[in-house]
Amino acid sequence: MKELELELAGEYLLMAAMLAEIKSRLLLPIFEEIEDEEDPRAELVRRLLEYERYRKVSEEINELDRVERDIYPSSVETGQFEQPLILPDIQLKELVFSFQEVLKKAEMFSTLHFTKEPLSVKERMIMILEKIENEDFVKFEELFNFEEQKIGLVVTFLAILELMKELLIEIVQAEEFGTIHVKTLIEK
Amino acid sequence: MITDFNLKNTIEALLLSSDEPLSADKLYKIISNKERITKADILDSIKELEDDYESKEIEVSRVASGYRIQAKKSINDYLNIIFAEKTPRYSRALMETLSIIAYKQPVTRGDIEAIRGVSVSSSIMRTLSDRNWIKIIGYRDVPGKPAMFSTTSEFLNYFGLERLDELPDLPDIKEPQNLDLELDDQSSNQNKENPITESMLN
Question: For A106-161, how does the pLDDT look when each residue is reduced to its tens digit (9 = 90+)?
Fold first, then answer.
């Protein structure tokens, strides 16, 4: 052992001590009165048996049909479709344009609201994630609540940018000037 | 756009073209973009597809993530020849680790170590994660905040299962009543199998 592996050494010592304890107990003469004392080997046996259950079942699982050995999913070549699958990169200005439309729409709702809402980008990020969690694609506009004031819309926009930066969402636009969709990148 | 739209043929093509199984919900979402259909139509068409395949050597199989089209087992003898070199092999240690995660999830590395009696190999955990069979679903609220692992639907897909309860039952091994008798019987074959005793000997 070149390095000092305390954890491993500790495990060995514990097991050695346990075996020594078992051995010494077995060497003691047995008196009838202390009948109900547990067999010192029981704990070790219990652990061995617990392991044995998983060892056995892992052999069964190993025998299950599996892809790459017993199951062969069929597929057809889809090479000819690969071209359109390359989605155009979205320029930041397109996002900004899209956001401007959101603002324009919001103006229609901009009657008099004066209540101040405490808004946090972090919180908005979570709200967006929750909203798109179970959807494949959500329209960019749908993430905005048009009844909010401008500041609320800005917070939502910042939250989207932040989520993009952290690679938690993906933004796609299938065609030029088409609808922008937002998609979660979090594994379910 | 598509003239003479045929739902059954469309579903067939989608299942064949997709790299992953597709659920009825997903098929519905994809197709209802263009065509007026209901979810029940999807299920009906899948049933029709299954009937069509009865006379063929492929079948529609239902696994955790949805439906996929696969070869029937009857032609595995031929397929095994084609794919012989691509069949990965997994070590006993990896299968045991995977089994413990599957049956005891959510588990931490410590839980796995307690059962196997040896420390969990990082490379096994990496292989299992790389294959997308296990994932971290959270952190246990104890000192050190160890990660808790669970299996994924890709794991079930791989083994052709739809749900976890389709896994073989975990065998119940009775604790021996009289250790003196039982240990004499078993000691010879258990010693070489168990990592706890293995590590003792090394």
Answer: 887 766 555 555 567 888 888 888 888 777 788 888 888 888 778 888 888 988 99
Secondary structure (H, E, C), A23-88: HHHHHCCCCHHHCCCCCCCHHHHHHHHHHHHHHHHHHHHHHCCCECCCECECCCCCHHHHHHHCCC
How big is chain A by its Cα radius of gyration, in Å? 32
Tell me the residue type at B71. A
Question: Going along B45-181, which residue ranges are E strands?
Answer: 58-63, 66-71, 134-139, 147-151
State whether residue B157 sits within 8 Å of chain A by CB. yes
Task: Give dist(CA A7, CA A99) in Å, integer.
Answer: 57
pLDDT in tens, B41-81: 999 999 999 999 999 999 999 999 999 999 999 988 898 88
DSSP state of B97: H
Q: Evaluate if residue B198 carries a pLDDT over 70.
A: no
Listed by number, the residues of chain B in 29-68 with a beta carbon closer than 8 Å to a beta carbon of chain A are 29, 58, 61, 68
Question: What DSSP letter does each residue of B41-77 carry, written as one string?
Answer: HHHHHHHHHHHHHTTSSEEEEEETTEEEEEE-GGGHH
Partners of residue A81 in chain B, C-beta under 8 Å: 17
For residue B85, give how far its alpha carbon lies from the nearest alpha carbon of chain A (Å): 10
B137-173: pLDDT as tens digits: 888 888 888 999 999 999 999 999 998 889 999 888 7
Chain A residues touching residue B58 (CB < 8 angstroms): 74
Amino acid, res. B188: S
Structural domains of chain A, ranges and CATH numbers in brackets: 2-63 (no CATH), 92-184 (1.10.10.580)
ipTM surpassing 0.95: no
| Distance between CA atoms of residues B128 and B152, nearest Å | 10
Question: What whole-number distance in Å separates Cα of residue B7 and Cα of residue A184?
Answer: 29
Min Cα–Cα distance to chain B from A107, Å: 31
